[in-house]
Amino acid sequence: MSTAVMIHQRGAPSGVGRLIGILLLAHLTGGLVVPFIMLHPLVSPPGFLVSAAGVATQVRAAVLLFFVGSAMAIAVASAGWRVFRRYSSAMALWLVALAVAAFSLQAVDNAHILSMLSLSQEYVSAGAAKAELFQGVALVVGAARKWSHYTFLLTVGCWILLLFTLLYRFRLVPRPLAAFGMIGAVLQIAGVSLRGLLGYSPEVRLAMPLAPAYVLLAVWLMVKGLDVRHRPLDSDASLSQRKPYLGKNARRSVPVCRS
Question: pTM of the predicted model, to two decimals?
């Protein structure tokens, strides 16, 4: 193999890894951290019915960030597609499928957030005359948003777990780093998403280890890139050297000497 080909094979995955690292940071900040901070007035007393109308611009900006941030998962799966599918086409496909599903569920969640904002604005316009009516509707709208939100968190948590599992299985990053991310993702799924869907209060502290694992992975990828020394380069080289199997009953061709 020529030196130029070897440099290309090693350099291309490194560039992909750095791109994935940048996208993961964008996914963390734009889709998993900043919008939730911006939406804090909606989930803190006195509740979204009273407070959402006063921060309408902030709510709309958070929704836009949710759209952009959730699209980063699709961008990560797309950027790593050519590398990931060489290790496992099934895991690469699932990574894309879960990213698309998470984006779709986030769109549903965003619709519920905007419905909460619209209801709050109508409540402020109507005054105290129909307060009981609006409070009853607010319970329904808030519950719809809660269930769609937990469903999204479960899906994106599974996507993160699959990403770390893929990186761990094929040693594309150091295994202790990938294992740390896998543990963080499992804790997030069990402590927040599943508890919320089962009707229990989420244990937010269990989701905290996932954030540093995500940041460490992004920084590692931006500095080191993906490690593709184990597979598929070695396996591809061995496969290219194998002779095609013709079957046990195949006849060997014998050169015929013609005079």
Answer: 0.84
